[in-house]
Structures are given as C-alpha cells and as structure tokens.
Amino acid sequence: MLKMAVLLSGSGRTLDNFHERIVAGTLSGSIQVVISNVGDALGLTKARNYGYPAFHATGSDSTNAILAQYDIDIICLAGYLKLYQPPSGLARAVINIHPSLIPSFCGPGFYGSRVHRAVKARGCTVSGCTVHFADGNYDEGPIILQKCVGLEYEDSIDTIAAKVFAAECEAFPAAINLVDAKGVDFFWKKVAV
Length: 193
Fold this sequence. Notes:
Layout: E1 2-8, H1 13-24, E2 29-36, H2 42-50, E3 54-56, H3 60-67, E4 74-77, E5 94-98, H4 113-122, E6 126-133, E7 143-150, H5 157-182, H6 184-190
Parallel strand pairs: 1-2, 1-4, 2-3, 4-5
Antiparallel strand pairs: 5-6, 6-7
Helix pairs in contact: 1-2, 4-5
C-alpha cells in the first residue's frame, strides 16, 4: 500500500474519489497529507473533514518542507495547477493526471477546459485522460495508464469535460494500484524519456 501526498489547487473532486476508494478498499493507498497552493481551496476543507492533515503552501520549497514531516511513497498531483519540483528523494514518484490522451493537447497552457475546448475545435471523436509520472516538464514523464472516451459531434465542452472526468475517476486509482503492484522503477525503465 502506497503512502500518498495529495497536492491540489481547487475543489478536491479527485481527493473525494481517492477517499471514497480508500474507504471502499479498492485503492492501494493511504493519504498522509494534503497540500494546496491556494489558501482557501475547497479541497483543503474537504481534506480536514476527512481527517487528513491539510496545509497551504505557496511553492515547491514550502510544500517540500511540509512533505519532509511525513513518510511518503508517492505524490499525486490532483488538479494541482502549478509546476512542481519535488525533493530529490521523490523526484521519480510524482504522479499527475492530464485530461487528454498524451501526446495530444498537452504541455504549457493546456489544462482544464482549455484542453476540452481544443479537442472540440479539432473535431476529435475520442478524448480521454493520461496518468503519468511527472518529470519537471508539463505533461512529460512515463505514462502509467490511459483511458479513452468516445465523443459525439454534438458534445459540448462541458459534456466532454464530464466524460473525461468520469474516466479520470477510474484511471487515477487504477494507475496508483498499478504503481503499487509494479513499483515506480518499472515505469521509468519501460520508456526512454
């Protein structure tokens, strides 16, 4: 079972998903600490209500100072909208989720509804999400798992976002379970990044 730190910037919907799956016994992880770069993020309130230690930290250095107080195996970026530089001991243990099928619609400036807007504008008939290890550059690092969703021509940006988020709710926990089963090094060794 992986000891997790969760970094977030917003409402904490992914935190909700993690918590529900931990309680149900379907996620091979335990949340040790939750940190947000936004002081009044709803996700911090949710974390405290779930009983997790929850903190506001403005940057990588202050985040890492908090993480140093906890025994952590992986850091999960759960809607964390800031480039994060982990401590050296966890440099290969940061997992991110992106709302597209990387390498499409990713990189600097591609996040949230911007991704779905670009997918719609291109006329894509599929989209999805990618869970990957972060390597210090936006949306790079070894891919752990991808989940595809079909799109209809008449789907709105909100509909696309809802379909992709539903896929994320399945993919992120499944990816954490894969990392628990195979180990972090397995994914870094399987691709040349």
